[in-house]
Amino acid sequence: MAAAETSPLKIGRLTISDRASAGVYADLSGPAIEESLAGLFGGTASFIRALTPDERPQIAAALRRLCDEDRCALVVTTGGTGPTPRDVTPEATREVLEKELPGFGEIMRTRSFAIAPTSILSRATAGVRGRALIINLPGSPKAVRECLEILAPAIHECLRHLRE
Description:
The protein is of the alpha/beta class. It has helices spanning about 1-5, 20, 30-40, 55-70, 90-95, 105-115, 140-164; strands at about 10-15, 45-50, 75-80, 100, 125-130, 130-135.
């Protein structure tokens, strides 16, 4: 147990974007995840990066790979949580979860509403697959930073429970 606590926390970050995956524009939200989580976990975090288009089978496969093969303790997605037909991240996430933790999405929407009333359009969720915590975040770098700040205490607590 002590070795697991001192080894770097392996974090998967998955950007879901048709345009970023096609090279139309740079992924800015993925790096925002890393910046925010590096601040939360300091030098104890290492990142595995993935990028996929808004395609449910590809999103689900990437989540499974990050959890099952790469053995990430935390997987954070960005993008695909809105109401448009191409936004399928929550559906792909629920497909791979063993336990849903809806409080993550609920608190992000509740706390973000004062900053951006459109946050109620987010369908983000979170949950557990094996010993990995998966969290969906919005697609903007600003929202990524704000939401991770809100979620930090719950992320730490959930990871502690999953490591027991």
